[in-house]
Every structure is written in C-alpha cells, then in structure tokens.
Amino acid sequence: RPARGIARASILVMLASLLLVGIGAFSFLKRVVLPLREITNRFHQLQIAPESKLAPMAVVGDDEIANLGRGFNDLLDALTARQEADQAMRLSEAQLRANLDNTPNVAIQWYDDSGRVSYWNPASEKLFGWPASESVGKTIDQLIYSKDQAAEFRRVLDTIKDTGLPYGPFESAIQNRAGG
Predict the structure, then answer these.
(1) Which of 60, 5, 66 is nearest to 39 (CA)?
(2) CB of 123 closer than 8 Å to CB of 108
(3) Which terminus of the chain is more exposed, N or C, with fewer CB under 10 A?
(4) CA dist 127 → 72, 124, 131 (Å)
C-alpha cells in the first residue's frame, strides 16, 4: 500500500510537471516563436513583392521581441514613405519632361557628370539636326561643339556642380549636324 501511494503521488507530480512544461512551451510559442515567424513571413513578403502594402504588425509588450516588431513597423513606415516619394518624383519628372518636350522654341539639353547628353528635347532636334535617339549618351563635342568649346562647356558644368548655383549667360558658337 505505501508503494501505491508513492506511485500515485509520483504520477500526479509527473502529470503536474508535464502540465507546467506544456503551459511554459505554449507561452514560449505565443510570446517568442509566433511573433518571430510573423516578422520572418513579412520580410519574405517584402522580398517577393517590395511594392506591396503591408499593414503594421500588432505589437504587445515591452520585451526584445516586441521591440523587434516595432522596429519592423518603423522599417515598413520608412519603405512606404520612400515609395511615396519615389512615385511623386516620377510624376514630377514626367510632368517636367512633358513640358520640355512641348516647348517648341527653346532647345533644352541635360548632361550627366561626365558631359554626356541625358535629355535632348524636340526643339534641340530641330535646331541642331540631331534626333534625341542619336544624341543621348554622346558628349557635346560629338554633337555641336569643337573639342575646345566642349572643354569650356565642361568647366561650366563643373562650376554648376561644385557651387550648385546657376551659371549664365554662356554663349558660344555651335554647329548643327550638317556642319553649319
């Protein structure tokens, strides 16, 4: 009989221990594993579809896992702001290009840091005789200036780049595609 009592007590202690371990495991799963899995899944969603709009995570608590969730939400906010800014910039650039493309009597060109044409509007095509498709990517000395004139023009571009200020007026002789 005393052995049966000890056996029952041992079984009850083991069951209570298993119950406590189960409760602890469930709590760990709920507080650590599931939030980490959600963060991992959301990063995966961003990797697959960076332009997708994800709702912020629900964050509860003030531990490291909650802080990680808040950090993810901050990253999501920053990505959303960046996407909105990029979209606004693309719209603004499209509007500017439309305006420049439809300016019939003002030849406008844009140049990159190395002096290569990055934009050539229709008025430039008309004035210089070079279509935009052939002009973009070429240096100015390949289009309308001699080597010396192009060197002076690059100095002007460098001054603009270095100071951030407008430069002008800048006058020089140019030639069109036909050499005139």
Answers:
(1) 66
(2) yes
(3) N
(4) 54, 5, 10
